[in-house]
Amino acid sequence: MVTPPTSEEAPHIAALRRAVELGFQFKPLAFKPEDGGVPAALYAERWSRDGVVETITMQGMTEAIAARIRVEDYPHGDPIWQLAGTVAEVIAELLALPAHDSPGAPTLARRASSSLWLPGDS
Fold first, then answer.
1. Is 64 exposed, middle or buried (0-12, 13-18, 19+ CB in 10 A)?
2. How many domains does the chain contain in total?
3. What is the pLDDT of residues 61-82, one digit of tens each?
4. Which of 63, 72, 16 has its CA nearest to residue 44?
């Protein structure tokens, strides 16, 4: 039996569904054996024909980071845009960005945030 989302979870789940509809591919990241193999985090990416990769990493509803990185800099380069916040916030802001190389789109690489710690990161 599937439990419907709570009012607190609903906007985050809706944002995740929207990201999937728009081509983001999700995969579990860093399993927690002590919790029966439950993922410690989720990671998603979407490759654009415009020359960027957009990513979303989350550890929970309130711990997420979204980023846009130039293809030539991916996966180890600095993002040209990044935001940390709730799942719903970062997905909404990422999806609201203008297409890469269009007026108003971010262009300057900035140092990647370390706000979201992932298991195995040093």
1. buried
2. 1
3. 999 999 999 999 998 889 999 9
4. 16
Of 10-24, 35-49, 106-120, the poorest mean pLDDT is in 106-120
Q: What angle do CA 114, 23, 8 make, to 5 degrees?
A: 60
Residue 80 included in any domain: yes
What pLDDT was estimated at residue 120?
46
Range of the domain at 86: 27-117
Q: Of 34, 40, 36, 71, whose CA–CA distance to 55 is shortest?
A: 71
Give me the DSSP letters along 76-104: TSPPSEEEEE-HHHHHHHHHHSPPTTSTT
* Tens of pLDDT, residues 29-41: 866 667 666 677 8
Three-class SS of residue 28? strand
What pTM was estimated for this model as a whole?
0.84
Going by the DSSP 8-state scheme, the letter that residue 62 receives in this structure is T
